[in-house]
Amino acid sequence: MRVFVTGATGLIGSTVVAELLGNGHTVLALARSDASARAVEAAGAEPLRGALADLDVLRTGASRADGVVHLAFGNDFSSPEALARNVAEESAALAALGEELVGSDRPFVTASGTPQTPGRLSTEADPVPTDGPVGGRGRAVTAVLGLATRGVRSTAVRLPRTVHNQGSGGFAGLLTDIARRTGVSGYPGDGTQRWPAVHALDAAALFRLALERGEAGSAWHAVADEGDRVRDIAEVVGRRLGLPVESVPAQTYGPLGPIFEADQPSSSARTRSALGWEPKHPGLLEDLENIQP
C-alpha cells in the first residue's frame, strides 16, 4: 500500500514511517522544510513538500496514495490562543484530507486522545470530548469517523497522554522540560492522578494495524500502561535530573493545566483482542530512566 503520512518526522511519525516501510508499504510523507525532506528520504520514504496549512498539497498527497495516516499537530502550547490555532489548523487539514478520500473506500487513520471517564478506565466505546481546551480536536476526529458513511474506511488511534521513546515525548516530556527550566520536578495537585502511556514503537505498530485492518468508523486505544501516577513520573524525572520533587500549581502548565490535573486512566482491552496488538517495549517509568541529567 502507498501511504500518505503527515507529521512523518516527529517522535511518533518517524516510528510509524519505519513500521510501514518495514512491513512492505511505501510512504509519501509531508515535509515542511528541506531538513524534513532530507530526513524523510533518509528513512526510505518520498517527501512531498508542504505544511499542514497547505490544503491543496494535502489533497494532492491523498490523491496519490492508497491510504492516509495523519499525525501532524502544532507544538505551540504557550497560550489558549496558540492551542486554538493548532486545533483549527488540524481541523481544516482533516476536512481537506477526508473530502479527497470520499467514495474511495481507502483507509484514513487519524490520531486522537484517550478520553477521560471519571471513576473508571476509559474504553474504546467512550466518546472523545468535544468541549474544553481541545474540544475542537474531538469534533474534528468525530467528523473523520463519520466519513465511514461516505465511503471512507476512517479510523482513529487514540493516543495516551504520553507517547515516549528513550525518555522523551508526551506529557511526561513536558514535565521534564519544565523541570529543567524551573529547577523543580513538579506535579499538579497531590500527584495521585493517573496518565496512560505507550512506547512510540508500540504505537506505530497499532497505526499500521488500524490502516491494514481497522473497520470503518472504529476507534482504537494505543495504551500500554493503563495509568502511571503523575507523582511517580515526577519522582523519576527529579531523580534523573537531581532536582527536588514538589507539588506545583496547575497554572504552571498553562492551558494544559486542567488536563494535567485530571485522573484519566485508560484501557486497550478491545484493541488488543480485536487487532491482536500487544505492546512489547518498555513502560513509561522504565523508559524515563533514559533521561540524561
Brief description of this entry?
This protein is α/β, with parallel strands linked by helices and 293 residues long. It has two domains: 2-162 and 198-224, Rossmann fold (3-Layer(aba) Sandwich), CATH 3.40.50.720; 163-196 and 226-265 and 283-290, UDP-galactose 4-epimerase, domain 1, CATH 3.90.25. 41% of the residues lie in helices and 20% in strands.
Percent range of helical residues? 40-55%
Give the domain tally.
2
State the distance separating the first and last CA atoms: 42 Å
Shape: globular
CATH topology of the largest domain: Rossmann fold
Question: Major beta sheet, specifics?
Answer: 7 strands, parallel
Domain NAD-dependent epimerase/dehydratase: 3-217
Region (Disordered): 106-136, 262-293
Biased composition (Polar residues): 111-120
Protein name: 3-beta hydroxysteroid dehydrogenase
Secondary structure: elements and pairs:
Layout: E1 2-6, H1 11-22, E2 26-31, H2 34-43, E3 46-49, H3 55-63, E4 67-70, H4 80-101, E5 107-113, H5 135-146, E6 153-159, E7 162-164, H6 170-182, E8 185-188, E9 194-199, H7 200-213, E10 218-221, E11 225-229, H8 230-241, E12 245-248, H9 257-261, H10 269-275, H11 284-287
Parallel strand pairs: 1-2, 1-4, 2-3, 4-5, 5-6, 6-10, 7-9, 8-12
Antiparallel strand pairs: 9-11
Helix pairs in contact: 1-7, 3-4, 4-5, 6-8
Explain this structure:
With 293 residues, the protein is α/β, with parallel strands linked by helices. The protein has two domains: 2-162 and 198-224, 3-Layer(aba) Sandwich (Rossmann fold); 163-196 and 226-265 and 283-290, UDP-galactose 4-epimerase, domain 1 (Alpha-Beta Complex), CATH 3.90.25. The chain has helices at 11-22, 34-43, 55-63, 80-101, 135-146, 170-182, 200-213, 230-241, 257-261, 269-275, 284-287; strands at residues 2-6, 26-31, 46-49, 67-70, 107-113, 153-159, 162-164, 185-188, 194-199, 218-221, 225-229, 245-248. Strands 3-2-1-4-5-6-10 form a seven-stranded parallel beta sheet, sandwiched between helices.
